[in-house]
Write a structure and sequence with these properties.
Length: about 425
């Protein structure tokens, strides 16, 4: 398949949390080839933006000439711009057929103003040539007020799409502003640097891959949510970390986890059999969780069979554990149940974080797994590596191993098996 090229034109953030580096990381994660042109060097971190040094017009032009001489470009995504960059983009727009996705970065999260009134008026010329503009709520209001106050609607002979971003994002068209679609989001309690860049470059990347606009926005929403969940902590904040967890990735992880399981002499199989499950990010129901349709069961030779296929919706039991755990740590997306052994639990506490619940304390009319997982996580103050219970009437005691994905879980199970074998 011919590689899709996206041309990213924006500012350089040395931390890579925003700007052309964040955009390129996003495009790369989405399988699109990121071509990048830097318009300004912006020394900054999660504490502040310290400067903005514009690249000379001649050098911006040389970067554009070099790119268009050698590459076909279907989408241009813009971030922090200056007047020279806008003039050059408008000039190239006349000669080349590319769509523009413009993220109008008026100021940074740390309140550094990137755009004054002169440059904002120049942005209005660019907006008319855009396919999609992605201001956050505050930027949108600033732009509309500026156009109204300076009577600039006469500059628009086109009616670009605008995605007004926030926890929920609203897709409208600039001139008639009727809401075409509202895309709902899940707010994570974190202030992450560069989410606007990641979101707009993810939309641009999905468009570059041929997705329709609304599908591109919905898929990009999952990317930016993941970039927040997996954001890297720094002294003064969090850097966005574009991450793509889709059904294909979950199935691949589970397949490789089962491949690894076969490499160990896994014998800690409960009477009811084991299952292993991994979910999409922030699963809403067991349908967002993949597992074996059958079980991992003991065979007569001390080994085990893996019965069934990997399917989404295949497990309710293990799924309920993951669905409960996500509320304590959204990065925990996988779990596997193995056989309980009292002596083993004592030894495991040297290497693993452990919590438990007692079925005798279970309130009436609750899902045991949901209640038990919540109880154990509350007691632990997060999600431990292991949650066990000693069983109850007709219920086998059980150890449940949790991790960030199925591969992480099987690596923990392998270590538990090694410890058990040495007992
Ligand atoms: N803490 C967060 N939790 C979930 N989504 C977030 C979070 N921060 C930003 N986003 C999403 O990232 C996108 C861009 O964020 P927004 O704050 O609107 O833009 P900007 O970062 O440019 O101010 C929006 O779709 C928003 O929902
Ligand atoms: C080079 C560059 N581009 C974009 C932003 C906006 O990112 P944020 O809104 O997180 O400050 C930035 N700070 N730096």
């Amino acid at each position: 398949m011919e590689k899709h090229n996206i041309l990213i034109i924006g500012g350089y953030d040395p931390t890579g949390g925003a700007g052309v580096i964040a955009d390129a990381k996003t495009a790369k994660v989405l399988g699109v080839n990121p071509l990048t042109i830097t318009t300004s060097i912006i020394p900054q971190n999660n504490k502040a933006v310290y400067n903005k040094v514009d690249i000379p017009k001649k050098v911006i032009k040389e970067q554009l000439d070099a790119i268009f001489e050698d590459f076909d470009v279907s989408i241009v995504k813009t971030g922090v711009l200056n007047e020279d960059a806008i003039n050059l983009i408008l000039k190239y727009k006349k000669d080349y057929d590319f769509k523009i996705v413009c993220d109008p970065v008026l100021k940074s999260t740390t309140n550094y103003e990137f755009v004054d009134e002169n440059l904002l008026e120049k942005h209005v010329d660019l907006f008319n040539e855009c396919y999609l503009i992605t201001p956050n709520e505050e930027e949108f209001n600033t732009i509309i007020n500026f156009i109204e106050k300076n009577n600039l609607w006469k500059k628009f002979d086109k009616n670009p799409y605008v995605l007004v971003t926030g926890t929920n994002d609203k897709l409208i068209t600039l001139k008639d502003k009727n809401v075409i679609e509202t895309i709902k989001g899940k707010k994570i309690d974190k202030e992450v640097h560069g989410t606007g860049c990641v979101f707009s470059s993810a939309i641009a990347s999905f468009l570059c891959r041929g997705e329709e606009l609304i599908d591109a926005i919905k898929k990009a929403k999952d990317i930016v949510l993941a970039s927040v969940v997996y954001a890297t902590k720094t002294k003064y904040g969090y850097n966005s970390n574009p991450t793509y967890i889709n059904k294909e990735k979950v199935i691949k992880n589970l397949s490789y986890a089962l491949y690894l399981l076969k490499k160990i002499n896994f014998s800690l199989i409960p009477e009811v059999g084991s299952n292993i499950a991994e979910s999409l990010l922030l699963p809403n129901s067991f349908k967002d969780v993949a597992a074996l349709t059958g079980r991992i069961i003991k065979n007569k030779l001390g080994g085990f069979y893996i019965v069934g296929d990997i399917e989404f919706g295949a497990s309710e039991h293990i799924a309920k554990i993951i669905l409960a755990a996500k509320n304590y740590d959204p990065q925990i997306r996988a779990c596997m149940n193995i056989r309980y052994d009292e002596d083993l639990i004592d030894v495991l506490s040297e290497k693993f974080s452990i919590s438990s619940f007692d079925r005798k304390l279970e309130p009436p009319n609750v899902s045991t797994m949901e209640w038990g997982t919540k109880y154990a996580c509350e007691k632990f103050g997060g999600v431990p590596d292991i949650i066990y219970d000693k069983g109850g009437d007709g219920k086998e005691p059980m150890i449940r191993v949790l991790g960030v994905d199925a591969i992480d879980v099987v690596k923990k199970v392998a270590e538990i098996q090694r410890i058990y074998d040495r007992m």
